[in-house]
Amino acid sequence: MKQYLRLLPAVHELQKDPRFETLKKKFDLHETQLTEFLQQEVGSLRKSLLAEETLIEKATPDFTGQIFKSAELHIQIWQEDRLERVINGTGTVLHTNLGRSRLSDAAIAHVVRTAENYSNLEYQLVAGKRGSRHQIIEDLVVQATGAEAAMVVNNNAAAVFLILSALAKKQEVIVSRGQLVEIGGSFRVSSIMEESGARLVEVGTTNKTHLVDYEQAITEETAMMMKVHTSNFKMIGFTETVETAKLVELTGKHQHVIFYEDLGSGALYDFKQHGIGDEPLVREVIESGVDLVSFSGDKLLGGPQAGLIAGKKELVERLKKHQLARVLRVDKMTLAAMEETLKSYLAGAEKIAELPTIRDIIRPAEDIKVQAQLFIRNLQSKSSNYHSELQESTSQIGGGTMPGVEIPTYIAAITHKRLSAAQLSLCLRKVKPAIVSRIQEDQVCIDFRTINFSELDDLLAGFVACQ
């Protein structure tokens, strides 16, 4: 193969080829940028020849044509969006891998307005002087939770880290062994506590922790008692935990001890009224007397990725002044989305139901059934390669939220005449927009809980493309 190396074209020769200008115009590339692509292709081909990995079919191969063809393919791939739209046919509402909560129309519109214009992010318009981004939505969080004060950081893990670093560094933090959880990305409460500089004091056992365990652990070195909501798993059987109210009463006897509850998902809407889960409401936890709570913005709240902190004013002010608050602050688009999301909660039940996350979780199974039936009829009329049937099934909440909770739903269970379920699922992930399904009993299953009526045409087109 090495004898073919001399046939490789020089880059300056490629620049003179008419195809150079053609590609430059087609992809709107700068000359330098296109040259870099071609250099990469020449280098890749040279490496392949040296390794004898390239099959040569002609005595005088057209390396120039091969390079331009390969470059065009790679430029097309490079110009595609890395972050692309996906149709979620899994039925998992808060699918972490698919971006969790979808934003409401109002939140999306406010993000766009904020992104395309200047804003008063850190400017007091009336006073004409510098302001603080903490003030933009604090009053809305306070109204929604009943807390004295609030702030927002970039996710709930950041909220946990800030609280421990600012309020318990080099001091003891008491946590039940049954709450030393690990969530996605190997985030462990024990590890984040170590990084924050706080000293972990474990009490109780994995399955049982009593009030006396906390009482006996409190010393002059205790800065905080931390309760972690086990939102990503459920422990059943011979178990016991201490209620928030009792821990509030206990810390009330020790003025130097802060009681902080990490709520994880954090619900402002009562899903229990629909018979879904037993997630505690943030307002109820605040009213019980805890000093601080933190929770996610992009889980049950239905907003953008963020970590919300609410509680006693004196403690929140200390957090705002800590150096980490700047490191962990959110940007203007996140604040815009969170503002509209919180306003929906404060506007009443009708507006709350318009939040996609809330809407999808409480959506009646009969509504989903109608949508699934419509899709099945349309698919059968478009292609004879598919067999589709309506089946009863269950959806999951997802995002480490409400473990064990399953909501009744309807799915389209689909098989293909030639393709296996795995092959069809792969094909669907390659279409635009990509369709993510789940496989059960060698059938590709589409759960319509997480699919809007406006997505049905694209969903159908994806299946037709794979026929």
**Strand order, largest beta sheet:** 4-12-11-10-9-5-8
Radius of gyration: 28 Å
Could you say how many structural domains there are in total?
3
In terms of DSSP E residues, the strand content is 15-25%
Unreliable residue stretches? none
**Quick check: average pLDDT?**
92
CATH architecture identity of the largest domain: 3-Layer(aba) Sandwich
How far do the termini sit from each other?
41 Å
Let me know the CATH homologous superfamily of the largest domain.
Type I PLP-dependent aspartate aminotransferase-like (Major domain)
Briefly note the CATH topology name of the largest domain. Aspartate Aminotransferase, domain 2
Number of helices: 19
* Relative helix content: 40-55%
Structural shape: globular
What is the CATH C-level name of the largest domain?
Alpha Beta
- Number of β-strand runs: 17
Structural class: alpha/beta
Catalytic activity: L-seryl-tRNA(Sec) + selenophosphate + H(+) = L-selenocysteinyl-tRNA(Sec) + phosphate
Pathway: Aminoacyl-tRNA biosynthesis; selenocysteinyl-tRNA(Sec) biosynthesis; selenocysteinyl-tRNA(Sec) from L-seryl-tRNA(Sec) (bacterial route): step 1/1
Function: Converts seryl-tRNA(Sec) to selenocysteinyl-tRNA(Sec) required for selenoprotein biosynthesis.
Subcellular location: Cytoplasm
Main traits of this protein?
Aspartate Aminotransferase, domain 1, Aspartate Aminotransferase, domain 2, 3 domains, 4-stranded antiparallel beta sheet, 19 helices, 19% strand, transferase, protein biosynthesis, L-seryl-tRNA(Sec) selenium transferase, SelA-like, pyridoxal phosphate
